[in-house]
Amino acid sequence: MNILLINPPSENEIIGNNPTIIEEERGYNPPLGLLYIAAYIEKHHPVQILDTQVEKISYYDLPHIISDKNPDIVGITAMTLTMLDVLKTIQVVKSTNEKIKIVLGGPHVHIYPDETIVQPGVDFLVLGEGELAFKELVDNIHNKEMLKTIKGLVFKDNGVIVNTGTRDLIGDLDTLPFPARHLTQYMKYSSLLAKRAPITTMFTSRGCPYGCSFCDRPHLGKKFRWRSAENVVDEMESCINMGIHEFFLYDDTFTVKNQRVHEICDEIIRRKLNIGWDIRTRVDNVDKKMLKKLKLANCERIHYGVEAGTDRVIKVLNKGINIELVLKVFKMTKDMGISTLAYFMIGNPTETKEDIMTTFKFMKKLNPDYVHITILTPFPATKIYLDGLKNKIFINDYWREFAKNPKPDFKPPYWDVIFSKEELDELLIYGYKSYYIRSKYILKRLMSLNSFDEFKKKTKAGLKVLFMR
């Protein structure tokens, strides 16, 4: 079986109603889910990865590439926000060769299996974590009776939907091979925040035990599962051997296990690795001793979820933190010489304009190196979305309706009880400009530049903020 895993173009993402600098901030990140799948099966089947985004491949280019690669199976990660591009990619693949089998995985198919399996061109779904189920699917793809015995699959048999149920989560993540970065053009991945190029992303754990009402990754579960320090740093060393020295650890909450953080840092220090790295975590999940160890191991940036500038709204979001702790931890982090990024949202339930302006004022008081602001969009299967349905904030289950019939003109509504969409858009733009277009901030960023290339990238991002409409 010749397998092609595709990261589709991002020409039709339906979250386009959030005007942010996210693409400038993130740059290009490798599609880790596909890289894990590829690594798990490449010893058994020929596999290729096509990351259309980093390779700048359009739908116009896709047909002849599909013909040249001539796959038997095409695998695609499906997220609700990218379903329009997923379906358009499927259309291109099937029009090139209708015999190619299409396999979808990811959070969207986990939430909406029945709605997804009936979409044109979709042959199979893989539920939950995909490594084991995908390989077993490929091994038995022409034997539907055998497929019915494999947990984690959805497919049609004579028009009847077969769902074999979600399989158990992988207990020992150290048993998984490292992502197959060698199958991508890995030298092209970059980020505005990084001091080095190329960069790569890593998962050192799966699952987040916290209960924020706006966030959910149902296909990975709530149970926190982690890789050993040796396994994590072995992967870093393998990347160094490929010429990669910059890492963004993409765990939802990297610091859940305090001792493991120290062990990873100690291993990096012991091996004297020449790297820089970012983590994402919570302000109630770090302490001074941990920050000191992170700094010694050259962790250069920490991304904290703050979300709002008032304790009342933070409580509404079930975040479990408070403003006093946020201020304390950001100060500790900056005093330790580690850069900070703060995530904020506006348009939250019960949030007034006064609350939002308080958030913008708090951002300046906090003064992180970067802020990332979005308008709250209640995502599928999250508590906040389910509460909205229950309390008739949303008159219908619009995500399920979209899953049944994805339309290009679909725009997910905000939690717009108090504000209109236009008002929230204006507030978002004001928030970005009031933070980034400040002489004090601009001077600080100019003083921190390390190269002309970094100057060009950050100037481009700054101009984007300046001309936001």
- Binned strand content: 15-25%
By CATH, the superfamily of the largest domain comes out as: tm_1862 like domain
Question: How much is the average pLDDT?
Answer: 91
**For the report, how would you describe the main beta sheet?**
7 strands, mixed
Main attributes?
single chain, about 475 residues, alpha/beta, Rossmann fold, pyruvate-formate lyase- activating enzyme, seven-stranded mixed beta sheet, six-stranded parallel beta sheet
Protein described:
By secondary structure, this protein is an alpha/beta fold. It folds into 2 domains: 161 residues, Response regulator (Rossmann fold), CATH 3.40.50; 241 residues, tm_1862 like domain (pyruvate-formate lyase- activating enzyme). The chain contains 19 helices and 15 strands. The strands form 3 sheets. A 7-stranded mixed sheet has the order 2-1-3-4-5-6-7, with helices on both faces. α11 links the parallel β12 and β13. The longest helix has 16 residues. It starts with a strand and ends with a helix.
Quick structural gist:
The protein has 469 residues and is an alpha/beta fold.
What's the SSE blueprint?
Blueprint: E1 3-7, H1 22-26, H2 32-41, E2 47-51, H3 62-69, E3 73-77, H4 83-96, E4 101-105, H5 107-111, H6 113-117, E5 124-126, H7 131-139, H8 144-147, E6 153-157, E7 160-163, E8 199-202, E9 205-206, E10 225-226, H9 229-240, E11 246-249, H10 258-271, E12 276-281, H11 288-296, E13 299-307, H12 311-316, H13 323-335, E14 339-346, H14 353-366, E15 370-375, H15 383-390, H16 398-404, H17 421-436, H18 439-447, H19 452-466
Parallel strand pairs: 1-2, 1-3, 3-4, 4-5, 8-11, 11-12, 12-13, 13-14, 14-15
Antiparallel strand pairs: 5-6, 6-7, 9-10
Helix pairs in contact: 2-7, 3-4, 9-10, 10-11, 14-17
